[in-house]
Amino acid sequence: MGAYILRRILLMIPTLFGIMAISFAVIQFAPGGPVEQIIAKLTNQGGSDRLGGGGGDAGGSNFDAAGDVGSKYRGAQGLDPEFIKKLEKQFGFDKPPLERFGMMLWNYARFDFGNSYFRDISVLDLILEKMPVSISIGLWITLLSYLISIPLGIRKAVKDGTPFDIWTSGVVIVGYAIPGFLFGIMLMVLFAGGSFWDWFPLRGIVSDNWDQLSWPAKIVDYFWHMALPLTALVLSAFATTTLLTKNSFLEEIRKQYVVTARAKGLSERQVLYGHVFRNAMLIVIAGFPGAFISAFFTGSLLIENIFSLDGLGLLGFRSVVERDYPVVFANLYIFSLLGLFVGLLSDLIYTWVDPRIDFERRDV
């Protein structure tokens, strides 16, 4: 197993390199970069009149050069070309793309993500600042969906075709069909001071006076704020995992070794949890990394927007809109690395659940 783990870790290097290289190449062709963002803000504020170099003669003498810059950056006509060059140097665009990509990889290998373009804070500090919200959402969604879905999926498999299976399937399908953000809006309208009741807060994961509360009050306040976002997110995750668990158990229950175990006089509980569970749960475990990463980042993006939860999903979205590339690439790097390691962890859990699986005998 040690050799397999080492091979997987070594394979992460080219995988991560490919992800970053493709993303970096795509960014080079994306319009509206950080220089254009600054130019747009200046021109909208009438800044071009102030930055043209002083008097009318100076502005006129620089117009031709500025026109060349304007051919590169939309809206730069009339701006001092020296000012544009300073902007390029500030954002690192005065260097060739390959050199910038190499420097980025070297820095990221040392977890040096630099500073945000538009916030007076380092990228790592910014990510750590938003991390508690995303950790809260990701861990609770994953935990709740598995704690609800696995027992329910097993029960549905055992009661396949009964009224219990039929009506719970209806609930699951409806839950799967409703987007999480739409359900979140409905919860907000009903229970967060919309058109009906004002029972839950609408923003943040804790109250403003949270530091002044006692520990029991802090716990109650935290879950009071998280109740609606978690309910909205659990719905779709719970539905997917439930159906996956049920179908996996149904497939295993119909196999010959289950008939043999029952013929030996084992109880239904012994058959299910002593024999079927270990085999049926393999496919559920295989989906754990994707479920965790989705709940931790992309799955919570719209919910963070709706309930004003300032987490990594919202940070990543805003960074893309603002073209804050250090934050964008740092998020991409961290979550790609996290996804690769969680995938390895999933394989190790495979071997723990079913010792018959030996990855060292297979090619990576």
From TrEMBL:
One of its GO terms (cellular component) is plasma membrane. The chain crosses the membrane at residues 9-30, 133-154, 166-192, 222-245, 280-307, 327-353. Residues 131-346 form the ABC transmembrane type-1 domain. It comes from the Bacteria. It is found in: Cell inner membrane; Cell membrane. GO terms for biological process: microcin transport; transmembrane transport. This is Microcin C ABC transporter permease YejB. It comes from Mesorhizobium loti R88b.
